[in-house]
Write a structure and sequence with these properties.
This protein is an alpha/beta fold. The protein has 3 domains: 164 residues, FAD/NAD(P)-binding domain, CATH 3.50.50; 89 residues, Alpha-helical ferredoxin (Fumarate Reductase Iron-sulfur Protein, Chain B, domain 2, Orthogonal Bundle); 163 residues, FAD/NAD(P)-binding domain, CATH 3.50.50. It has a 5-stranded parallel sheet, sandwiched between helices. Strand 14 and strand 15 form a beta hairpin. Helix 4 packs across helix 9 and helix 5 crosses helix 9. The radius of gyration is 23 Å and the shape is globular. It starts with 14 loop residues before the first helix and ends with a helix. It binds flavin-adenine dinucleotide and iron/sulfur cluster. The site of flavin-adenine dinucleotide (FAD) has 38 residues, from helix 10, strand 2, helix 11, helix 14 and helix 15.
């Protein structure tokens, strides 16, 4: 499978064209609209939206501050509970979380909490004053492995508690999938980098371009720090295990999307027929990116149905609006290429769902005998989940289930008493949610557990 990174695309779209196509797709609220929307809030006692937000943002409180034009206060309330609250205002599945819990769902329509959150955090971004200050140094040192939402959240809380914190980040820019993975027309990179900057301004030493396990050993970290927060997320898209994955024109969805956010010339799909395999958020992002890169048609291929699809409802709607087609109950069995080794067809099989449930509780797809057919394609993008950091977890000697690190649900402490884990690295096997907001909350929980652990000693 091509990982895209080193290829040069002579016929790439122009920088101007890309800037337009990959600019943020939705506009924020105007001040007037934000004030009107905030005045619809009932400021419920025991508000259900607070409970529905994984980071427990005091939603009525920040909305009240918007209504009274205290935008800095609103942003502080948001970012106190959620160190990546600006990104979350754009990518949270709000209809399943805060907005889904709003009491106004029964009467009219829910408060647009995500948009109000964006309005307040956009103000903080435009205002150069930092929202937080570091705590009084307590003499303790913590290493954070990974500078994504979980690592940034843990680091921010620890710095406010006076810990000396170093983030080790393998890439050249911190921010994790917010910076590199989620498409820029939903989450511009500048928003994520502002959140990184807020953490750096608290004195957190963010060492980019350093991969723990390769550039610095885990033994070194264990010797140098009082505690470690493991927040390395997940890896690349795994192989599907079918013939033809090494052909030219077969791509890893995460590397493909990353190319559009990295400032490097992305792949041109001008006039191409694209098949995206998978039906999660990554698959939707790859599909909508393909449309913006000029694809003639984009089909998402999924062996189950809409009901089992893991992409959020808003992602599904967005993909439909963008013109993505869906081939449900379809399983790829082989990728076929021409004499030059370039993809020409995807061979698929039709499926039916068995009434029996698999170990994950979902219906099991079964092949329909003799139903094979060929789809003519120019590119195939694999988006069937992400691999796990087995090597790093092995080096740290942590208990895990197929690369899902085992943690205490409240403290995020792993099987090693000094190592805590948060975010996507603990997601899977029916545990947790792979969302930015969950990663942020778990990072906070790890930091608070470290604070409690050393409270009697600092
Ligand atoms: C395409 C796509 C779209 C998504 N869309 C949404 C969405 O709309 N809404 C939503 O809530 N969630 C979405 N998600 C999920 C969300 O991005 C993740 O759940 C979240 O980023 C997890 O945060 P994390 O900090 O655990 O991991 P990551 O964001 O993956 O960050 C981990 C960091 O660790 C670094 N790292 C890895 N190994 C090492 C090492 N050995 N040493 C040092 N650093 C290391 C990585 O470079 C990375 O920066 C999407 C994910 C993808 C891939
Ligand atoms: S962080 Fe997400 S879930 Fe929480 S209030 Fe904001 S938009 Fe809603």
């Amino acid at each position: 499978m091509e990982r895209i990174d080193d290829r040069i695309y002579a016929d790439s779209p122009s920088a101007e064209d890309l800037a337009v196509k990959f600019a943020e797709a939705t506009t924020g609220l105007t001040r007037k609209a934000a004030r009107e929307e905030s005045n619809r809030c009932l400021y419920c006692y025991d508000a259900p939206c607070i409970k529905a937000c994984p980071t427990g943002i005091n939603v009525p409180s920040f909305i009240k501050r918007i209504a009274t034009d205290n935008l800095r206060g609103a942003a502080t309330a948001i970012m106190t509970a959620n160190p990546v609250g600006a990104s979350c205002s754009r990518v949270c599945p709000t209809e399943l979380l805060c907005e889904g819990a709003c009491v106004l769902n029964d009467a009219s329509r829910p408060i647009q909490i995500g948009l109000l959150q964006r309005f307040a955090t956009d103000y903080a971004i435009s205002d150069s004053r930092p929202l937080f200050t570091p705590g009084k140094p307590n003499g303790r040192k913590v290493a954070v492995i990974g500078g994504g939402p979980a690592g940034l959240s843990a680091a921010r809380e620890l710095a406010r508690d006076g810990f000396q914190v170093v983030i080790y980040e393998a890439r050249d820019l911190a921010g994790g999938l917010d910076t590199h993975g989620i498409v820029s027309f939903r989450l511009p990179q500048s928003i994520s980098l502002w959140e990184v900057e807020q953490v750096a301004k608290l004195g957190v030493d963010i060492r980019t371009g350093i991969r723990v396990g390769d550039d610095v050993s885990v033994e070194q970290l264990l010797a140098d720090y009082d505690a470690i927060v493991l927040a390395a997320g997940m890896g690349h898209v795994p192989s599907l295990g079918i013939e033809g994955e090494d052909l030219e024109g077969v791509y890893d969805a995460i590397a493909f999307v990353e190319r559009t956010k990295s400032g490097l010339p992305p792949l041109s799909l001008s006039g191409a027929r694209v098949a995206v395999i998978g039906a999660g958020n990554t698959a939707v992002d790859a599909a909508t990116c393909s449309i913006r890169l000029g694809a003639e048609s984009v089909k998402m291929i999924y062996r189950r149905t809409r009901m089992e699809m893991t992409a959020y409802p808003f992602e599904f709607e967005f993909a439909k609006q963008e013109g993505v087609e869906f081939r449900w109950l379809t399983q790829p069995v082989r990728i076929i290429g021409n004499a030059e080794g370039k993809v020409t067809h995807l061979e698929c099989k039709r499926m039916v769902l068995s009434p029996e449930r698999g170990k994950d509780g979902r219906s099991v797809p079964l092949p329909v005998e003799g139903s094979e057919f060929l789809l003519p394609v120019d590119a195939v993008i694999l988006a069937i989940g992400q691999s796990r950091h087995l090597d790093l977890i092995g080096q740290l000697g942590l208990a895990h289930n197929k690369g899902v690190v085992s943690v205490d649900a409240d403290t995020r402490q792993t099987s090693h008493p000094s190592i805590y884990a948060a975010g996507d690295i603990v997601f899977g096997s029916g545990i947790g949610e792979a969302t930015v907001v969950s990663a942020a909350e778990q990072g906070k929980q790890a930091a608070h557990a470290i604070r409690r652990r050393f409270a009697s000693q600092v």
